[in-house]
Structure formats: C-alpha cells, structure tokens
Amino acid sequence: MLNALKTIQEQAAQSLAAVSDPKLLEELRVRYLGKKGELTAILKQMGSLSAEERPKVGQLANEVRTAIEQLIDQKAAEIKLAVQQKKLESEHLDVTMPGKAMPLGKAHPLTKVLDEVKEIFLGMGFSIAEGPEVELDYYNFEALNIPKNHPARDTQDTFYISDNVVLRTQTSPVQVRTMEKQKPPIRIIAPGRVYRSDAVDATHSPLFHQIEGLVVDKDVTMADLKGTLEMFVKRLYGEESVVRFRPHHFPFTEPSAELDVQCFSCHGEGCRLCKGEGWIEVLGCGMVHPNVLSICGIDPEEYSGFAFGIGLERIVMRRYNIDDLRLFYENDVRFLDQF
Amino acid sequence: MNLSMKWLSDYVDVGHVTPREFAEAMTMSGSKVEGWEQEGSEIRNVVVGKVAEIVRHPDSDHMFICQIDVGTGENVQIVTGAQNVHAGDFVPAALHDSDLPGGKHIKKGKLRGVESNGMLCSLSELGLTVHDFPYAIEDGIFIIQEPDLKPGQDIQSAIGLDDICVEFEITSNRPDCLSVTGLAREAAITFDRPLNIKAPVIRKTEGDIHSLLGVDVTAPDLCPRYVARMVKNIKIGPSPRWMRERLRASGVRPINNIVDITNYVMLEYGQPMHAFDYKFVDGGKIIVRRAHEGETLETLDGVQRTLTPDMLVIADVKKPSAVAGVMGGEYSGIADDTNTIVFESACFNGSSVRTTAKKLGMRTEASGRFEKQLDPETCIPAVERACELVELLEAGEVVGGMIDVDHSSRQERRIPLEPDWINRFIGIDVPVEEMHRILTRLECKIDGDDVIPPSFRSDLEHKADISEEIARFYGYDKIPVTAIRGVANGKYTPEQKFERSINRILQAQGLYEVSTYSFISPKYYDKINLPADSSYRNCVVISNPLGEDTSVMRTTIVPSMLEVLSRNYNNRNKAAALYEIGNVYIPKSGEPLPEENPMVVMGMYGEEHDFFSLKGIVEMLLEVLGIEGCEFTAKKDHPTFHPGRCAAIRIGGTSLGEIGEIHPTVLENYAVGTRAYVACLDMKAMFQTITPEKGYRPLPKFPASTRDLALLCDDALPVAELQKTIKTAVGAILEEIRLFDVYRGAQVETGKKSVAYNLVLRAADRTLTDEEADAAVKRALKALKSIGAEIRS
C-alpha cells in the first residue's frame, strides 16, 4: 500500500508537469484528490490494514495529499500567470497613438498672469479692491494731485464722456475710493481695465490693464515699499532677479520711483531685448503724497503709505515673449490655446 | 532732451567717467538717461585727404583720377565722379575697408579699368547736411574748409563729429532740467564736482531801448513777465562751427546766427527766446494782449490760424505777430535783410499756453516748455546771454537798456525741514549736516528750520518733496529693504470667489477665455438686429473717440462675442468655444456714472457644438455654482437669436439671461458662414440666486424602484411641462427623472412625439413596495393626461 501511494505521487507529479490547460488541471485534481479519486480509493482500503501499519500509511497518505495539493496549487499559479501573460501580450497598444482628452478650455493669458500676481499679493496680506471704469474726473485726476491743465494730463491722453466724467486712465482712482471708505490699516491691490486714446499698434492699445497697489498704516516707510515690491518681483520672476529703484515723478506720490528689473537676457550688459539699457521697467511706485492722504481724510501726520501701479500687458508680453499687443484682443483660438 | 557732453563740460567737469558711468549715475540720481550716442561712431577709416593731383579718366568723360595725400608719405589713388574737386583741396577720403553711416562699406575696386582705393565723400555720405556746413554744397564732394587740417587726420576730429550726445527723459515736474545748465547742476551734485555757471557779460552797448520800443502787457495774468532787449546793425550769416555742432548734437537744425542764438539760449538756460524784426513792430510798441475774437495770424509754418480771446498774442499797435509762447508769425521773422531785432524773453501762464497749443494743434518746443510753468527769474539771464552771444559772434551791436515788465509774484516758499520725519518716512538715518549739504548744493537756502528752495524749483512745495531730494542724492539703492509691519488678512470677497468659480467651471467644460474691448460701435446694435427703439441703444458715449468702432461703451456684451467668433471663423479656425466675463455699462438717469454690470457670455461654433451642447454647459455652470431651480422657456422675439431656438433663463421672477442660436441675418452681418450659439448670463443676478450650501445628505439605506414611462403627446408640448407634471404628481419619492428618448416619425402620428422617461423612486425610511411604485406611476399618468400626454401603447 505504501508503494501504491508513492506510485500515485509519482504519477501525479508526472502528469501535472505536462499540463498547461486549466481544465485538464481540474480533471487531474479530481482524479487524484477527488471523492472518487485514486488517493481516496486507497484510503478506503485502510480498514484492511493492521494497527501498526495504519498510522504509517495514514501519515504517508497525508504527505502524498499535501504534496499533490502543493503541486496542483503551484501549477494553477503557473497556468494563471501564463494565461495572463498571453492576454497581456495580445492586448498590447501602440502607446504612441494620441491620447483621448476631455476638452479643456484655458484662461486668457492676461487672466493667467493676473491670477499669479493676485496670489502673490494675497500671500502678503493684500485684499482685492475694485472701482468703476467710467470714472469721475475728480477721482481719476484731481484727488490725485492732478488739477485741470496739469501737464501730467498730457501724458495720459484721456477719453472724455463729459467735462467731469472720463474713462479712467489709470487704476489709481481706486486708491482714493478705498481711502475714502476704509480707515487704515489698508493693504489692497486693484486690478482692472484702463483707457487711453492711443491708436492701436503692436505696442499701444486704447484699452489695457493695470494693477494698482496701496498700503497705508502708521510708520509705513519707503524701505517697506522697496521690501514689498522687491519680494513681488522675486516671486514673479524668480529669486535670482536683480531689481533697482530709480527716481521718477508721479503727481500723487512723493518720493516717486520706477522699478526696473535687470535684463534676463543680457544681465545688465545691454542687448536688443532691453534696448541696450540693461534694465527693463516693470512698475511705477512711490510714497503716497501727503496731499492725497489729506484729500481722502487721512491725517498725513499720523499715517503714511505707499502705492504702485503695474502694467499687466507688459509683464505678460515679457513672460511669453509676445511681441504684439493686438494678439490679446484678437482672441484667435490658436493664440489662446498656447497658454 | 538731448545733451551735448562738450557743451556740458562748459559747466561741470565729468571727464573722469565713461559715458556709461555717466548715464547710470544720472539715471540713479533722477535724470533718466534713455541712451547715448557717440557722434560719428558709424564712420571708420575715413580721413582728411589733400588732393595732390587730379587728371581726367582716360575712358570716361565725367570721372577724374585723384592722387590723395593721406599723410602716409605715399599718395592713394581714388577715382571720383564729382566735378567740384581741385588740386590742393582738403576732402574726406574713405580708404579701402572703411565704414560710412547707414552701414555702407567701402572697398577698393576698379572704375572703367582704373584702380580706385577708396571714395571721396559728400556731406550726405557722412550723414551731414548743408545746415551743418553752410559753405559746402549738397551735390558734390565736401571740400573741407576748417583750420589746422592735416592729411591723414580722422575725419571725426577734423569736422567736430566727436561729441557724445546723451538723451534724457525729463519728468514734467522738472522743466529746469530741460537745459544744459539744469543738467549740469544735477551732474555737479551727482558726481560731487564744482558747478561753473557765470552771469553773462555784455561788453558794449549803444543807445537806449526805451527810445525805440515800448512794451505794454494788458493781460498780466497770462504773462507774468516780459523782458526785451534790442540789437542793431545785425549781420545775418551762419553761426560758427562750435555753435552749429552743439545745436546739431542737441537735435536742433542750425539756421542762421540770430535764430541759432535764440535756440542756443533755450537749450542752455531752458528759456525759450524769440527774435522779432524791429521794422515790423508797427508804432514801435509791443502789446501783449488777449487775441480778438476771430483775429487771424499766419504762423511761421505758413498756416493761417484763427484765434480766440482766451489766447495770448504778441502784437504791435496794428496786428498780432506771434501766438505767445507757441509760435511766431510768418512776416515778423528774421530774414537776410533784417537790421534791428528785438529779443523777447518772457514768462507765460503755463495752463494758458497748454490750452492754446492744444486748441491750435501746434505743440512746439517752446510751448512744451512754457506749459510746465517756467521760472520768471530766468528771463533776464537768458536775454543777457543772448546779447553776450551776439557780441561773441559779432552778429550785431547791443542796444543799451532793457525793458522788464514784471507782474510775477514771487513769494518766498518756506518748507519746514524735519530731519527726523524724513528719516522715518524714508526708512533711513541721514545726519542733519548731510541733509544741509545736499540741499545747499541744490541751491536751496537753509534758514533756521526752514528750507527756501530756489525760484527755478517750483516743484519743491512740501516736506515730502524735500524728502525726495534727500533720498535721491543719498541713493535710492542705499535705502534698506524691509517688510511691512503688522498682520493683514488677504482674501477674496465672496463675489470674487464666485467669479473665480465661473472661470474654473467654464474652462473645465472646454471654453477658452477671451478679452474684448469694452467700447463698441453704435452700428453694432444694428448688426445684432436690435430695433431702433431698443433700450440697449441708450449708452455711455465717448466724446473724443479714436473712431466710430470704439465710440460707445457697450450695453450688451453679445456683439463683442460675435466679433471674436467672426474673427476666428474668418481666420479659418474650424471650431471655437469661448467665454468672457466682461462689464456692460448701463446709463442711470440722474447719475453721472453708469452702472457697470459684469456679464458672462459664452459663444461657440463648429461641428461638435449645437444648442444643446451650449445649454449643457450653462446647466452645468448653474448647478456647480449652486443655482437651483432655473427654468428655460422658449423666447421667440429676441431679435438676435433664431426665433425657434432661443430660451430665456430665469429663476423665479429673476431673469438670468438668454441662450440661443444666432439669427441667420446676424450671422450674415458678422460674415459667419456656419451656425453659432451664444448664451449670456448676468453675473450679479446669478450671485444673488445662489442657494446656500447644503449639508450632507446620508447615503440611501433602502433600495430604489425604477419605472420607465413612454408617453405620446403633441409635438408642441415642451418636455419641461411633462417633467414638471410628473414631479408634482409623484411627489417626494421621485429621486431622479431622466429623459432618455424623444421620437418623431413613422411610428407616431404626425404632429405628435413619443417621449420616454426613466424614473428612480425611493423612500428614505423604508423599502418601497411595488404597489407604492405603481401607484406613483398611476398618479403621474393621470396628471399627464390632463395636459394631453398619454401612455404610449
């Protein structure tokens, strides 16, 4: 009987080795281990054995069962793997075929960069203020220290609705409106559309966007202005950016400055991109003129502040090397798709 | 402002710095340099040559073969076609391998078989004109007549083409820097060098101006000061080379000695000057008065100008001869036969000059200066400088005496000097002594705790102005960099967040954002078919538009979207799906400013787009924004849209906007040759109808029953009616209702349609029985029958 068991084990091993079909494997399992299988048939004869032989045979029978079971499991795993392998091979794709995407629209490049600018200033604690585009002359000019017939009005060719109503030429009137409504501390940016009567060409548009900024509090200094705007430029253009503040003149700030960033292309040596200057103008800024604070009902002896104005188109054009302003307002989808 | 560095060196010595260092330092102290140019830098290897020998070309009847002495001991042979060259002449010789302005390169070659080792140059080939060298001729070789010429000498040094010209951008508050002396003052402080401005000296005078001329200023408000001096026995001729060179470097064309002197003084002192021919001053009297209504004057540019009484003129007893501060008259100008002149050095009201120049459409160099309000104190030194130059140039004899009609009120301005405040304001720590030093060099007086600025610095009014003077000479770059103190909470407002959501949702659905002009043409209202009495036509009108296309502020954003769709269609883009959030500007009666309302406009064309794809986007937008219970109802009378394919979108009683296929006529107006779809939503109205955010709803614990309904009804019955009826009839257990088929055709009667719904029914607290579900369907069918829909058998 012991021999018979060993024979079964050998036979099973032999027949299993050749199997590759899962159906055949199942047949073999039934043949050797099933209720009517060969092993069961032998175990059924156990009763005819002597008391000494029975445990030996029993033990061997169990060993043989376990061994065959292991072989079958192992084979089953092999077969499964082989089947899967075959399936995987048959399912191979040309992965270089184009992907299928849900259609996805895109933000206008001006919005895309504006959102970035907003995030930078939100992170520095600025809120976002708004004001009308059709604006009173008072807010656009007079409250900003630019009386009628001031020569500074010449540099901003204005669209007039009536004697007292203009299309705002700058976002600065939002400064005044904010200061009228809100007591310091004030920390806002005011992005928006501005209008100047410039005929359309590659670098001029009668409509463009500015981002105004205003900070008013006790003891705000020009050093704070430098710190804030330098941080902005580094966030926008990268930590390695080199900036300089250069004296300038705006009627509603004093002292006034323009911020230049060192040319990314020539690093200050002068090249075509920066028109040989080595620097590229980014924004205008300055300490809020005490007259402006007074006009808005804020005591310049108690408070001080700074303001700045950024031309959005200019920074977007630089970001993407866009050389024609008109592209922004033509809205060709082949242009819009690039951002 | 173009500055000649040679001229600047009369007043301050900055020879120790390179042009680049000069430009950088001046820029950083507040006088922005736009660029600089070395004169003659385009010219290379061109020398002074002396014509040693000249013979006719054997094979040409118009060319000559010249042997040119260029100082090397060996003559150079050059062939020329010019007819004005003679032996012994000094000429500009461009040698083999030389460069001329405009990128012209000269190499040796053969002309009709004769070797030519370069080229003799004309004025224009050197980038010059006869205004620069009046003794030369235009079409011929430039025969140089200058002292101390040496063969072989660089042409630049021989003819004074060796100046450096620096271009400044001067801000409107600093008219004093629109002059050589003003910039010299800034340079002297910037480089800490002495400033060398001397008062002009007139050596000899004859007679007395008062016996020849009277000046009457009848409009002192417009002319705070009028100063005149006279010169007689004028000898009109070209001015000397040094003056012509400096004028040229400053971008001013030399004319003749008297005109050049007035321009020279304007550039040097910043004071525009005018010279009249005395013989045209009728009655020997200059009257500075307002123009008479309708008075005319032919200005120097030959244009007849009609004047108005708000303009100031310089006149004699009979007629006006100049528009004050703007331009002189044609007849009174300096001519070759001028014998006696009057120099006018005046100060006019800046605003008045500005308005006059603008009205007459003639901005001149003088008006650009006067409108910035010049310093009345400069009138006298300027006129004296002009007389000094007359003597220097031997252009005439200065008449004794001076007429000075001075109505200017020159109050001494006192500004408190508060060093602590300045240091705190700027964030620096500059000692008081240093502040005194800077201010003194700026020619401010320090009197106790006050600063008294010089008369030419009318921009200094406030202690903040003083702080800027300190800051710019201390150095903006030395001001520390600090962070703003205090905490602040930067955040978006709910409206701003709402707008951001709209952007996100629409982009996620495949729409590209566009940006269009806020102004449109009033004709666009016709293009979108609006009737003549449409309220949209009442809009904010720009009084000085660039053109009709951008002349009114839009009251609807639809034309802007159609423009963009049209442009894309005509650029042959196969499809476009776009949106914009943009304002419309609605006039409000009784208010100076219009209401500015943000609108969300969507537009699309192309194969994969139709009414329902756009509607799907709108529905998804509204759903994600949390705007529930919107209704779309057919709108047949919107003139812009297809009458059978347009819906009004409303929620309760509030209109949110409309959606539709664009009317074929409108498409034609926009040259769009395919169907296009536009939806427009009012952002404010949408924001006001958001349903407050809902809490969490537990997942269902009990199974749902589903039922399908196939209905037959009139084709005209909107499915929204069916759906509403089913919802009401089934009640709370209706979890979901989905339209899955609409059929018209052979299987149904003409004029009818078959509509199939799938209903999901569920109770929150129990398993719904089949009986309950069937009862619900029965209720629905009963209600549907009452509106004319029956179950399809």
Features:
heterodimer; A: 339 residues; alpha+beta; BirA Bifunctional Protein, domain 2; 2 domains; two-stranded antiparallel ribbon; 12 helices; 9 strands; rod-shaped; B: 793 residues; Phenylalanyl-tRNA Synthetase, Chain B, domain 1; OB fold (Dihydrolipoamide Acetyltransferase, E2P); Phenylalanyl-tRNA Synthetase, Chain B, domain 3; 6 domains; seven-stranded mixed beta sheet; 39 strands
Provide a concise account of the structure shown:
Chain A is α+β, with helices and mostly antiparallel strands and 339 residues long. Chain A has helices spanning 2-18, 22-33, 38-44, 53-90, 109-123, 137-140, 173-181, 222-237, 290-295, 312-320, 326-330, 333-336; strands spanning 127-128, 134-136, 165-167, 186-195, 207-217, 243-250, 253-262, 279-288, 304-311.
Ends distance of chain A: 82 Å
* Number of beta-strand segments of chain A: 9
Written as H for each helix and E for each strand, in order along the chain, the element string of chain A is HHHHHEEHEHEEHEEEHEHHH
Task: Report Rg of chain B.
Answer: 41 Å
Residue-averaged pLDDT of chain A:
91
Helix content, binned percent of chain A: 40-55%
- CATH architecture of the largest domain in chain B, please? 3-Layer(bba) Sandwich
